[in-house]
Amino acid sequence: MTQKLVELYNGNTIPALGLGTFRVENNDECREAVKHAIISGYTHIDTAQIYNNEEKVGQGIKEGLEESGLKREDLFITTKLWMSDYGRENVQLAYEASLKRLGLDYVDLYLIHWPGQDTALISETWKAMEDLYNEGKIKNIGVSNFHVNHLEELLKQASIKPVINQIECHPYLIQKDLRAYLEAQKIVAQSWSPLMNGQILEDEVVKEIANELGKTPAQVIIRWNIDENIVVIPKSVTPSRIEENLNVFDFELSDSQLSRLNALNKDERIGPDPETFSAE
Asked: Are 184 and 207 in contact (CB under 8 A)?
């Protein structure tokens, strides 16, 4: 199984598929899931400050490295800055606290988690992210849940562009215009909750394509992301599902299968709308 790498505009790479840990509690199930993922061949783990599971994710990384024989530099670890720590003076402390919880010296990608409603605050926060990047403390910096208008405001002030925008994206919400903008800016699109908490796996078209390919509906959706050049981080704590979700590099979707999946779009979200979301 050869994991596909996606090149970022700064020359670094990110594995096309990772393990998401959203809504995974800070317990041994989390630790075991992360460890099992690494032993199974995952080299990309995604967490966030607000998930409140960085400690167990970090323990899983440590144990996974020990058992797999991989080195820290073989992995790509992402965490995210929460809105309560926005502001230039807060970012470094929040980052260092995340590193301490994770038991790591650095992360490969640090993201601003939501755009919020205060563009000046985001601009100041981004400057602090740039500081950490320029000091070599973070390998890559990016954003999450930013729409085109948020990115345009950010890029007016930024001296370093985000490498990634992590967004809700699946065949019911293909985000065509946003993804076209990201492609033009050479910012990689990454999808969270790609399986819609399992909802999309019941779709008849998805099931038909799975039958055509001899794959599972989850594998079809994950492969849709990869074939659409979207980095994807499906979440699971079940060992067999963790393995199943990784087993997507031995097939591709045909153009007609991709078209059928893209035709499912109905701009349906399962998460908050970034235009209105705040941490209040």
From this structure: no
- The dihedrals phi and psi of 47, each to the nearest 5 degrees, come to -140, -170
Q: How confident is the model at residue 3 (pLDDT cuts 50, 70, 90)?
A: confident
Q: Of 135, 197, 129, 203, which Cα lies nearest the Cα of 162?
A: 129
Neighbouring CB atoms inside 10 A of 280's CB total 6
**pLDDT of res. 144:** 98
Residue 46 DSSP label: E
Domains of the chain: 5-262 (3.20.20.100)
In terms of DSSP H, where are the helices of the chain? 28-40, 54-68, 91-102, 119-134, 148-157, 176-185, 204-213, 217-227, 239-246, 255-262
Per-residue pLDDT at 220 exceeds 60? yes
Tell me what the mean pLDDT of segment 107-116 comes to: 97
Q: Give catalytic residues, as residue numbers.
A: 51
87 HSE (CA, 13 A, CB side): 5
**Using CA atoms, how far apart are residues 20 and 192, in angstroms rounded to an integer?**
8
Return the residue matching tokens 């820290």: 72
Rounded Cα gap, residues 202 and 112, in angstroms: 32
Rounded CA separation 25/60 (Å): 13
Dig out the tokens for 151 from the structure.
Answer: 């990115």
Query: Is-above-0.90 flag for pTM?
Result: yes
Question: Sorting pLDDT into bands at 50, 70 and 90, what band is 279?
Answer: confident
CA-CA-CA-CA dihedral for 196, 23, 137, 103, to nearest 10:
-140
